[in-house]
């Protein structure tokens, strides 16, 4: 059974500093009008927070723009998603937590106009980012398609993030990025590697030139690049079929490798001292294949 998800990835320059919320609404509305088949619209990391400023100014700008999850920004974005009838992932925003801490938080708004999921970046890019790390990984379900997980920019440099999301049942990992530095080439390798070793789609959306280095892409569960942008502003479109994840896991990458079916009943748990934990063969399979709910 096919489970298609038509996506539009907005590799764009960030909104100007101090731009009104209506400016982003116009950007999304124009994209939706130009690509009416898209049901899943994704923007880069911190797209709503302006271009990169010098470090001594950037934190003050973020402080000034930070809002709680139930603030006016989220309400406007929810209404926008509902009006357009799309899944809207506006990149990440600067969230002010209940204790006043700043978080780099990815948001997902449903076509019904509600905040369906939010994820606080677990691995802020230190020492350059002022955010407090998140304390949990996040997946959410897109009815009729499948389960989606979030990983923001530098998160993908830690393979545990993609592994945990896949274990929680993610079939596609959305990775909003604001990479302005020379390491985008390595991120492209990591996108393919995370897709291969977890047999998931990876969608990585970066900021366009001249602020960012672009090269947004979609990678399939066998590590093949389906579409990739250059550095300039553009919209990448694709239709990812999440049933490909089921197929690849059943028959193997290249018809060979079935990592999620690696263990037998006779295998013993493998201790992982670095995590003070273990790989337990009885639990080594994604959430979609387990009878119990994800905790």
UniProtKB/TrEMBL annotation:
Per UniProt, the keywords (alphabetical) are:
Hydrolase
Q: Which residues form the CN hydrolase domain?
A: 5-242
List the GO molecular function terms.
N-carbamoylputrescine amidase activity
Q: Does the keyword Chloroplast apply?
A: no
Reply yes or no: does the keyword Repeat apply.
no
List, alphabetically, the InterPro entries matched. Answer: Aliph_Amidase/BUP, C-N_Hydrolase, C-N_Hydrolase_sf, UPF0012_CS
> One Pfam annotation, family name?
CN_hydrolase
Q: One biological process GO term for this chain?
A: putrescine biosynthetic process from arginine
* Listed CDD domains: nitrilase (cd07197)
What PANTHER family is this protein classified in?
FORMAMIDASE, NITRILASE C965.09-RELATED
The record's similarity note reads: Belongs to the carbon-nitrogen hydrolase superfamily. NIT1/NIT2 family.
Q: What is this protein called?
A: Hydrolase
């Amino acid at each position: 059974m096919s489970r298609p998800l038509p996506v539009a990835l907005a590799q764009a320059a960030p909104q100007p500093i101090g731009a009104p919320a209506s400016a982003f609404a116009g950007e999304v509305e124009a994209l939706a009008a130009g690509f009416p088949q898209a049901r899943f619209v994704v923007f880069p990391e911190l797209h709503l927070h302006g271009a990169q400023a010098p470090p001594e100014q950037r934190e003050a700008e973020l402080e000034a723009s930070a809002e709680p999850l139930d603030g006016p920004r989220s309400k406007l974005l929810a209404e926008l998603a509902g009006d357009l009838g799309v899944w809207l992932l506006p990149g990440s925003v600067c969230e002010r937590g209940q204790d006043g801490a700043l978080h780099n938080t990815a948001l997902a708004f449903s076509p019904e106009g509600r905040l369906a999921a939010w994820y606080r970046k677990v691995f802020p890019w230190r020492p350059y980012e002022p955010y407090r790390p998140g304390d949990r990984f996040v997946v959410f379900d897109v009815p009729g398609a499948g389960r989606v997980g979030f990983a923001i920019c530098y998160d993908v440099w830690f393979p545990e993030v993609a592994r945990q999301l896949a274990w929680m049942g993610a079939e596609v990992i959305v990775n909003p990025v604001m990479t302005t530095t020379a390491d985008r080439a390595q991120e492209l390798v990591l996108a393919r590697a995370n897709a291969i070793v977890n047999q998931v789609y990876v969608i990585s959306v970066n900021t366009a030139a001249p602020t960012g280095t672009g090269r947004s892409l979609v990678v399939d569960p066998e590590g093949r690049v389906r579409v990739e942008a250059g550095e300039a502003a553009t919209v990448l479109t694709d239709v990812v079929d999440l049933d490909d994840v089921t197929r690849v896991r059943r028959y193997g990458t290249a018809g060979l490798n079935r990592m999620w079916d690696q263990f037998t009943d006779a295998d013993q748990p493998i201790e992982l001292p670095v995590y003070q934990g273990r790989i337990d063969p009885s639990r080594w399979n994604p959430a979609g294949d387990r009878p119990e709910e994800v905790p």
